[in-house]
Every structure is written in C-alpha cells, then in structure tokens.
Design brief:
five-stranded mixed β-barrel, Tetratricopeptide repeat protein, 3 domains, 329 residues, disordered N terminus, Serine Threonine Protein Phosphatase 5, Tetratricopeptide repeat, single chain, TPR-like_helical_dom_sf
C-alpha cells in the first residue's frame, strides 16, 4: 500500500509497542490509559484498519457505543476483503446497542450473514433486525458472580432470557441482553446438539416482570411440572431452582459442559459460577432422590403470582402446598 508516496506493508515498531502496551492495560482494566495509547497508535498508522479496530474494541469494552460505531466504520472503510471480517461484527454490536438498525443490517450482511427481508423483498427501513437463530446460553455478569442462563437469539448480538435468573444476577426473565460475538464455552445436550455460551455485555431491554422465590411442597415431579405448565399457560414462567441450578467453577463454565436436557423447549439446567472448583455440586434431586420441599423461582406480575400458586394447590391439595413467597428481583 502506498500512502503519501511511502510504501506501508506492516505497522511500525512504535505502533506495535503502543498497541501491545495498550492491551496489557486493557487486561488490567485501565481503559483510559489504554485509550491514550491506542489513539497514539491510530495517529501513527491511520491507514491501518487494525488501528481503528482496536479503538472500536476498546470503546466496546467501555460501552461507549457512539465512539465504537465511529471507530468501527473507519476500520471497515480500510478493509482489504469483502466479507467475514470481525471489524463488521463489532460495528454490528455497536449499531445494535444504539438501535441503528440500517447500519446493523448492513454490518451483518457485510460479515456474510443472511438477514431476512420484509414481505415484498425490501428490508425494513427502521425496525429491529429479526432473525431465527435458535437457542443459546448467555453468561450474565461475566466479570462478577457469573450465571449462565438459556435464551432465544433475536439477532447476532441480542438474546432474550428464558430461564429465571437467580436474584444475585440482577436480571429478570424476559429481559433482552446485548452479548459479545465470540462464545466462551458450550453446553452439550443429551439429544446431541450443542449450544454456544455468549458473554453478556449489558442490559439492552429491561423486563417489567418481577422475580419471586417461593418454597413449594410438591409430592412428585408431576406436581412440580404442573406449576411450570400453569405459569407458561399464563404467559409467564416458573422454574424449580432445586433441580435446574448447578454450581460450576469458572473454568468448567467456560468449557464444553453437558446439559441434562436435550430439547428446544426445556434447556435447563443453568449454571451458577463460583470461585475454585466445587466438585459435582448442585441441587439435582430427581427420581428416587426426590425431595418434597422445593425452592422455586417464579416470573409473574404481583397481581397474578398468588392466584397462580393457589390455583396450583387447588388442583391437588393433598400433594401440593406453598409458603414464604418473596419478591427478590
């Protein structure tokens, strides 16, 4: 490449030193210092798409989406290939965060994904990108007390949470979270399919539906299942945390872990990460080891939750009871 009469085949040593030091600082969480170095690197080599890609990446880490979009667009303008560049994926994430749907659509298409059009063949001008990408898992609070839950992928950067997260996550059933593009781990199902685990970046759309915890007395799995069906039929959710949650160390959580279920409709368990390695812990009490007392999470409006539980008991009062209902998130 010839720029201002000079041939540039690779970045200068000064560019490499500034960039290497910047990513060391990013690893330490020193984003401001890293930003100064990456800005200097971009000043040194403004014709390199990598200069702007690195700045876009930093702005993504900082959730500064306007700057991430600007740097990302400069990066893709300097690309020397037509499709598949990660630069376009970062532009897609920034555009999705900003709800810049025309740019998000352009980014996913430039990356090489098929983006559906409206009936009639024309893409929607301003509406969200809607894609059928199936189920996936998302790691909530990846830098803190992480929890892997199941959800439905709305597009390459958004997942709707379909598990009921534990209250420590600060997340609710039905929320949409923005997630990163590179999976960190997989969940393998008994039926064969595997599902990627993506890291949450931030909350994209909150849910108005609160999370409740309640202690159930359910004589059998069928009694427990009846409550989950009752909640689903009402348009909400119940999840038996006593059997759906398992504890994993961070290393296991980020690896290829088996999941006990194998169909699209019920992808429990979800995982709660803890420091160190807890061993084969969890709350799984199926079959001959069934425990009558269960801790259950419920996602439902305040005006519905008690009636839902009372209706569940009324259907079989000899085998069902509940107590200690509490709103937790």
């Amino acid at each position: 490449m010839k720029i201002f009469g000079r041939v540039r085949n690779r970045p200068s040593a000064s560019w490499r030193r500034a960039t290497d030091r910047a990513f060391t600082l990013i690893g330490d969480g020193r984003y401001e210092d890293a930003g100064a170095l990456l800005t200097r690197a971009a000043d040194l080599e403004p014709w390199l798409s990598e200069s702007w890609f690195n700045l876009a990446l930093l702005h993504k880490f900082r959730h500064d989406w306007e700057q991430a979009r600007t740097a990302g667009l400069r990066a893709v303008a300097l690309l020397d290939r037509d499709a598949g560049a990660p630069d376009w994926w970062n532009v897609g994430i920034a555009a999705t965060a900003l709800q810049d749907w025309p740019l998000a659509r352009r980014a996913w298409q430039a990356y090489g994904l098929k983006v559906p059009a409206e009936q009639g063949g024309e893409p929607p001008a301003g509406g969200p990108v809607e894609m059928e990408l199936g189920s996936a898992a998302v790691r909530l609070s990846p830098e803190g007390e992480a929890e892997v839950v199941w959800g439905r992928r709305l597009d390459p950067a958004r997942i709707e949470v379909l598990s009921i997260p534990l209250p420590s996550s600060g997340r609710r059933w039905g929320e949409v979270v923005l997630h990163d593009g590179v999976p960190r781990g997989e969940r393998l199902t008994a039926a064969g399919p595997s599902y990627p685990v993506f890291d949450e970046i931030e909350l994209w759309a909150p849910s108005a539906v609160p999370t409740w915890v309640v202690l159930l007395e359910a004589a059998s799995e069928a009694d427990r299942d009846a409550l989950e069906r009752l909640a689903a039929d009402a348009g909400f959710a119940a999840e038996d945390w006593s059997s759906s949650v398992r504890l994993l160390c961070r290393t296991c959580s980020e690896s290829r872990m088996p999941s006990a279920e194998g169909d699209e409709d019920h992808l429990d368990p979800h995982d709660h990460s803890v420091p160190g390695h807890p061993g084969p812990l969890g709350h799984r009490t199926e079959g001959d080891h069934w425990a009558v007392e269960r801790e259950c999470g419920i996602a439902a409006p305040p005006g519905l939750v008690r009636g839902l539980l009372d209706g569940w008991v009324a259907d079989s009062p000899d085998t069902r009871a509940w107590r200690d209902l509490e709103e937790v998130c």
